[in-house]
Design brief:
Blueprint: H1 15-32, H2 47-56, E1 64-68, H3 74-81, E2 85-90, H4 93-102, E3 109-112, E4 126-132, H5 140-151, E5 154-166, H6 182-186, E6 194-202, E7 208-215
Parallel strand pairs: 1-2, 1-4, 2-3, 4-5
Antiparallel strand pairs: 5-7, 6-7
Length: 217
Amino acid sequence: MHVNDTSQGSSSRPSAEDDAIGRFERLYAEAERGAAEVPWDLAAPHSLLAEWTARVRPDGSGRRAVVVGCGFGRDAEHLTGLGFTTVAFDVSPTAVRAARRRHAGSPVRYEVADLFDPPADWAGGFDLVLESMNVQALPVGLRARATAAVGRLVAPRGMLLVIAAGRRPGDAVDGPPWPLTRAEVESFAAAGLTPGPVEEITAPDGGLRWRAEFHRS
């Protein structure tokens, strides 16, 4: 989840949201102290993003991108390399500070921000929105709100790219994370977006992954 620093009034948020927020900040803070490892701390952008950009070859010149749940910034840096003016945000202030350190001098704007209450100028403000492996990390009760909030970031004639771990309907889930069914991926269209291709991909570990496009007219 991607929300403001918990010093900014966390008592007004639902407890499930607080738990999700705290879990990520604790992990990043422990990793900074050398007491934990962040499983998604990779030396390259997500493979399904890199494959997609190699195939589609999006031209970011004069266009804005936003990375939801940017972590340490690998995906954001990848999009910036394609010419996008990129904003990247995360729930964890510790993660954002680390991203800024790792990519000192980068043109990416790394921010701590609230997906449920983003800056006003972010609404409909991005030609490319990347949601990669974040919504699945939220309690199921927050998923519809988060899905709608992600969709609201997409500009007219813009697109949303969703990358997620997947599951079949009826599969037992012991999250977090809670992998998404195809129907849950397709629900991103509820934010007034037109669905594009929804790819079902078998990961190297044998697990199911989704990569899906949604477009705003």
